[in-house]
């Protein structure tokens, strides 16, 4: 019988991080257990490389991560025995990109969506101070959020009817438009699901005697492709919106608890046996950070 390796793909805002406080306190014990059990937690988020570099360190993760709604995957160079094909070496990462650069989408908005200019605020035009007020992030966090490489996030100000017209226009011009927790993201036709599938296949190639099993957790519409692509989908309850509709009807669960509390509860339920086996090392007082 082949061994089984579990991969956990997780959204951040509203999922592993609390929607209001951006804290992961309720999930910290579970994250420690997953590390002890050898289960990689792969962040799959709309956030930037600059943000993820900090968050990976804060969460004590040394795993691959996916930025800007599937635009690129950053793989620490010690993850696999050899560098995956179609990746480039940047600093200490093998990087796989799926998207045109951010400037392409900024130019497209400027050239073809001028009639909607009063209906949104763009990340590239908002000051860090203005963005702080919208997000609740501090100034340093906001500066990192602005360092985008691929998609351009927009803060929508108009009504829903105008938003639909705006989205239809952008799609007709070759853009992909994804609704995140707070912002509309204008970018390429890549998504969190495509990135999950690509990275999962790399694990299959490099651990060829092991079956790979994937769990995905997310709360927003921009998580839907990731949830559809995983073996098990966990929709984490949000305090600000309903569960997005999924097409899949199997191996799907919705948490009763919100954010990181729901995240941890779902993982504890799904991986009870693996996590219990890691408890002795946790209780011994060893430092797993």
Name the structural class. Answer: alpha/beta
Looking at CATH, the homologous superfamily of the largest domain is: HAD superfamily/HAD-like
Counted by DSSP, the helix tally is: 11
Helix content: 25-40%
Distance between the termini: 33 Å
Low-confidence stretches: 280-289
Q: What is the global morphology?
A: globular
Major beta sheet, strand line-up: 5-6-4-3-2-1-11-12-13
Major beta-sheet overview:
9 strands, mixed
The number of distinct β-strands equals 13
CATH architecture of the largest domain: 3-Layer(aba) Sandwich
**Main CATH class of the largest domain:** Alpha Beta
Mean pLDDT: 91
* Rg for CA atoms: 19 Å
Helix-strand pattern:
EHEHEEEEHEHHEHEEHEHEEHHH
Beta-strand content estimate? 15-25%
* CATH fold category name of the largest domain: Rossmann fold
| Whole-number total of structural domains | 2
Explain what you see.
- The protein has 289 residues and is α/β, with parallel strands linked by helices.
- It has 2 domains: 3-98 and 191-283, 3-Layer(aba) Sandwich (Rossmann fold), CATH 3.40.50; 102-187, 2-Layer Sandwich (Threonyl-tRNA Synthetase, Chain A, domain 2).
- 35% of the residues lie in helices and 23% in strands.
- It is globular.
């Amino acid at each position: 019988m082949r061994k089984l390796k579990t991969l956990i793909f997780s959204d951040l805002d509203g999922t592993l991080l609390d929607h209001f406080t951006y804290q992961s306190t309720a999930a910290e014990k579970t994250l420690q257990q997953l590390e002890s059990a050898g289960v990689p937690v792969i962040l799959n988020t709309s956030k930037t490389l600059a943000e993820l570099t900090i968050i990976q360190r804060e969460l004590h993760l040394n795993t691959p991560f996916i930025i800007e709604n599937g635009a690129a995957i950053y793989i620490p160079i010690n993850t696999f025995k050899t560098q995956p094909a179609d990746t480039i070496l940047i600093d200490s990462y093998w990087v796989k990109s799926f998207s045109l650069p951010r400037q392409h989408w900024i130019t497209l908005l400027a050239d073809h969506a001028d009639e909607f200019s009063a209906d949104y605020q763009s990340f590239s035009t908002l000051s860090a101070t203005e963005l702080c007020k919208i997000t609740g992030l501090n100034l340093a966090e906001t500066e990192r959020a602005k360092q985008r490489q691929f998609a351009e996030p927009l803060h929508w100000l108009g009504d829903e009817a105008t938003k639909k017209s705006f989205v239809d226009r952008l799609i007709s011009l070759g853009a992909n438009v994804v609704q995140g927790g707070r912002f509309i993201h204008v970018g390429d036709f890549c998504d969190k699901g495509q990135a999950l599938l690509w990275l999962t296949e790399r694990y299959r190639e490099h651990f060829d005697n092991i079956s790979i099993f994937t769990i995905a957790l997310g709360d927003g519409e921009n998580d839907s492709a990731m949830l559809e692509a995983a073996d098990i989908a966990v929709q984490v309850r949000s305090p600000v919106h309903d569960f997005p509709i999924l097409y899949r009807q199997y191996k799907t669960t919705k948490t009763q608890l919100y954010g990181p509390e729901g995240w941890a509860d779902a993982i504890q339920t799904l991986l009870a046996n693996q996590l219990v086996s890691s408890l002795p090392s946790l209780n011994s007082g060893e430092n797993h950070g």
